[in-house]
Every structure is written in structure tokens, then in C-alpha cells.
Amino acid sequence: MIIEQIYTGCLAQGAYYIESNGEVAIIDPLREVQDYIDRADKKNAKIKYIFETHFHADFVSGHVTLAEKTGAKIVYGPTAKTNFDAIIAEDNQVFKIGDITITVLHTPGHTMESSCYLLKDENGKDYAIFSGDTLFLGDVGRPDLAQKGAITEEDLAGYLFDSLRNKVMTLADDVIVYPAHGAGSACGKSLSKETVGTIGNQKETNYALRANMTKEEFVKEVTDGLLPPPAYFPLNVKLNKEGYQNIDDVIENSAKPLSVEAFEIHANETEALILDVRHQSEFIKGFIPKSIFIGLGGTFAPWVGALIKDIKQPILLVTPEGEEEATIIRLSRVGFDNVLGYLQGSFEAWKNTGKEIDTLESVSASVLEEKIKENALVFDVRKPGEYESEHLKVAKNTPLDFLNDHISEFPKKEDFYIHCASGYRSVIASSILKARGFHNVIDVEGGFNATINTNIERTAAVCPSTLK
Predict the structure, then answer these.
(1) pLDDT tens for each residue of 184-197
(2) What is the pTM of this model?
(3) Is residue 239 part of a domain?
(4) Taking Cα atoms as reference points, which of 308, 342, 263, 303 lies closest to residue 427?
(5) Where is the domain boundary, 352, 374, 389?
(6) For the chain, how many structural domains are there in total?
(7) Which of 17, 121, 286, 407 has the maximal Cβ count within 10 Å?
(8) Is residue 357, in this structure, part of any structural domain at all?
(9) Which domain holds residue 395?
(10) What gap in Å lies between CA 241 and CA 10, rounded to an integer?
(11) How far apart are CA 300 and CA 298, in angstroms?
(12) What is the domain-level CATH number for residue 80?
């Protein structure tokens, strides 16, 4: 028996390759599926089943394409409805892969069709559970993504409580837990950085699995402090339910090199957004006017989904040379398939023609310290939880996720300073503001982390036990 976790840090997502005696199951594959096919081919094995733990909201799964390319059967849990051929399994239905079995455990709560998959080894012993978004390490799935009609997030949280107590916590402590996500995912509130655990460890450390916890306490705690989900979530659910364009076709249609002249014509004659994915240090020094920065070096795809509201938005790319196709693939993972092309020769080609460029002013934390003495305005674009834990006393929290809600708070004429934790998100925010005419925005290099070596007054950190 072989179990391989294929973890994608940008999405904080885990897919799984399971093999036994020449047969393979894939759980929650990414949209680009060739890697799974290659793994099976190298071992002369055949992909038999594709198990989906639920209709994913945060990424486009590869189930449809993988089924088309391999003939494998797609499996969903009870109540799922799809526009493509799939096995809608019954609760406790058993699927055989070589010498092992996978049992469907219907665990509604995150969504109504959510299911975990229990792997029993060659001896019939419970070995591992692939818990999807039902159980994470340190957290559980948010219960507000599948509200319909009279079903509320409190109802879903109640279902999740029952699912965990009746289907998951009854398993032996040594059963391995393989979740769908780790820290950084928007599918939960406080996921662990670890990506593999055990049932026993989670019973001891996961707040939502406390032994004497009542359903009322559970519902209150898992629904408390939930931020609105990113705008692209329901659009990705729709693609996962109904199907989508083959990733190979997306790459062929999008990976079009454009000369500076052609790029400029596209920018002027379409409503395309110019997306610059180079490193923030390069973007600051020079970029095409009105470009938006979201760098490949950070959690690129989720930020694209959170900040670009329409997955059909036409996009023109400025990428590091050689990263064009990788950028297109990472955009497609969250459903953004409408790339018109990329600037051939990257930003240097634009710059070398003598065309207009823009820059972003960035200052060190020591300069910020001096400016604060002069009553400078400072904005912190980290998440509310980060801000509440500790922040610069003078800084106002305007989280990047909800920057649009705070636009009226930024001054039009007076210089103001933006920081995040380390400098990635603040450059994203600054690029958006500058594209909207805020030419008085100044980035703080190194962010909040860099202010540790200054005397800028900070709030005392809130005790972690009081934070949600």
C-alpha cells in the first residue's frame, strides 16, 4: 500500500495518491492532472477511482479531466448532484482498491454532501481517514458556505457536530488524519501548519473536539468570528458541480506571447486587468501604469480569487520570463481562465521601448518611525486576528481582503503608509490603491516584522487563549 500526500502550498491544499496491488485512487485532485497519471504509469498501475470529499469552493478540482483521461470513476458522497457522470455513494458504501478498501462516511456540516473516506488496510484494520474539510488539524470546516433556503450556518454547524461525534471521533486514536487543507486556507479559521495527524492527537488538541463540549458550545465557537468567504468561492463550486474547460485548452488559449505594441493595444481596447506577478521588490522599482501586483512568491491564487471579483475578468500578464505557463496554471486552479496573453520579454521589454512606467515609493521601518513622530497616517492590511494580537498603536486595520470596504478612509492628498506582516500584502494593497489614483500611498518595506527593531509604540499582545 502506498499513500502519498501531494501538497500545494499556494492553496494550502492536500491531494492524495493511494495505490494497492496495481490499482489507484486519487482524492481531491488539482485541476492539472498529469502528475497523477505519470505517478500511476511509472508503477504500471491504473487509476480506478477519483474520490471527491465535497464540492470545493477554494479551488477547481481535476476530477472531470482526470476521469476523461483515465476512465476512472468519480465518487461523491450522498446528496451530491452533478452535471457529469459520477457515482453518488451511499453512506458506508465500500470501494475496493487492490488489497485495501475505502469506506464512505457521510459527514455533512461543511457542506451537505461532505464525506470523509476511511481507508482499511490489507488486514481490514482502520488505517487512515481522508477528512476533507470536515476535520482539519486544529480546526474544523467552516459551516457557512452551503446555506440554502431555510438552512442556516447554525444548522450546518449542528450537523457538523453530529458528524464529528458520530463518524470521526469514534475511530481509534491511532487512525491517521489526512485533511484537505492546512494553515492559510480560507476554509477554516485556525488551521495547523501540520498536514498529517492522528485522531488521538486531534481529540487532545483540537478545540472543536473537546470531550465534554455541548452542541450549543460547538455551534457558537465554530460560527464565531467567521469572515465573509472570498467572492470566488461560489463560482468555483459551480465549476466543480457542472464541469469546466480542459486545462490543456486553457493553456493553449492563454499562453500567447504579446509584443509591447500588441500588449498595449489589448490593454487599451479591452477591459483587461494588467496583472504583474513578479517579486514585490521588482514591482516597486517599476511597473506598467495601473498594473495590479499579486506576486507568485506568496499565496498567489487565493489572493487573486479574493481580490479579482469575476473569474471571467480578462487578464494580461506580466511575469518573470519562463513563468508564463506556471502563472496560467495557478490562475486556472481558482477558475481564472480568461488570460489574453503575456508580455513577451516581461517588464524589461516595456521599459526598453521608453514607454511610460510607474514606481511605488517604499520606506524602511526606521523612516516610518520618524514619520510617525510627525503624525503620519499608518494603515495595517493584515487580517483582523493578526492585528488584534499585536499592532502599531497608531495603525488602523484595513484588511487586504476587504480593502474595497475601506477606500473612503484613505486620504486623497496627504501621504499615508501601508504595512502588512512582511511586505507582500502591503505591495498588493498599494498597487490597487495607486491604480485607483492614490499616488500618495507609501509602502513599508519588511512590514510589521521590520518594526521590531524600532521604538514605534506597539500594543501589548492579546493572550492567545482569548483569540478565536
Answers:
(1) 888 877 788 899 99
(2) 0.91
(3) no
(4) 303
(5) 352
(6) 3
(7) 17
(8) no
(9) 362-466
(10) 23
(11) 5
(12) 3.60.15.10
